[in-house]
Amino acid sequence: MLPTAHYTAFIKRRAAELGFMYCGISQAGFLEEEAPRLESWLNRNMNGQMAYMANHFDKRLDPRLLVDGAKSVISLLLNYYPPKEEQQPDDTFKVSKYAYGRDYHFVIKDKLKTLLQDMQEEIGEVGGRCFVDSAPVLDKAWAKKSGLGWVGKNSNLITPGVGSFYFIAELIVDVALDYDGPIKDYCGTCTKCVDACPTQAITEPYVVDGSKCISYFTIELKDQIPREVSGQFGNWVFGCDICQDVCPWNRFARPHQEPQFTAHPALKDLTRGDWQEITHELFSELFKQSAVKRTGYAGLQRNIRFVTDAAPVIWPEEEGS
């Protein structure tokens, strides 16, 4: 077996042992197809207050600017779909499923570091960096190039027989490997995600205006939530899963096997009244090391009041978080 084939097989086998659902590998280089799309998206201010999306434009399109001598992008998927018994009922305030358990940044970073160390032991000197949604890497583009799925009309990566309820992460390394190829788009004529979005954030198939997304309003936006979206959030107070919940491919979603993603047992039992009266102490207990910490206790209160009153609320002063 050639060294590249041996190394590639080792990486994919070890990734599976670490709990990753899929692993695909593509050759590091400039993302020519994505460059004009990203430029157009930014020029139309679809990033809203997410100014960081406009930073490091060149690095987002070329991983060789992030890792010296980069030759390969290893893309990995980690399932987070919660079992039915953990999922929140529809008649209460809801947080996105990805935030039920421990913050994925910590969980995945640990796995990536282990995988990189294992590669260094097996292959020898390997230079590389781990990326989990916190650096200028177009993760969906690289996962698509490596055949892990296609980018759907809701701009999420979708995998046949799996759906889209997973995290995407990367190892960018200076080792040449055997590369995978992309698969076709299986969205077909379906427009369920486009039709279901309450804020019309999917402005056209495959184009999502981030500044109109419920996830943006409830997580990224630090100002008051604008009056024009009043009454459009349903029960969502942190993130939103609507465009994934209606996607026919997610009928194939299966519960994750990662203990760290297990939801706090009290989460699914909270009524709307419980949410409205949530204390800082309970918030800290429910969302200890959770991604919900990103909006903070005051931010969550703002979102709950907005959804409850269906009226704009000024972002309150953060207290004790």
Automatic annotation (TrEMBL):
Coiled coil: none annotated. PANTHER family: EPOXYQUEUOSINE REDUCTASE. The active site is at 133 (proton donor). Pathway: tRNA modification; tRNA-queuosine biosynthesis. It is an enzyme of class 1 (oxidoreductase). It comes from Hymenobacter guriensis. Catalyzes the conversion of epoxyqueuosine (oQ) to queuosine (Q), which is a hypermodified base found in the wobble positions of tRNA(Asp), tRNA(Asn), tRNA(His) and tRNA(Tyr). [4Fe-4S] cluster 2 binds at residues 197, 213, 240, 243. This is Epoxyqueuosine reductase. Its EC number is 1.17.99.6. Its cofactor is [4Fe-4S] cluster; cob(II)alamin. Monomer. It is found in: Cytoplasm. NCBIfam families: tRNA epoxyqueuosine(34) reductase QueG. InterPro entries: 4Fe4S_Fe-S-bd, 4Fe4S_Fe_S_CS, QueG, QueG_DUF1730.
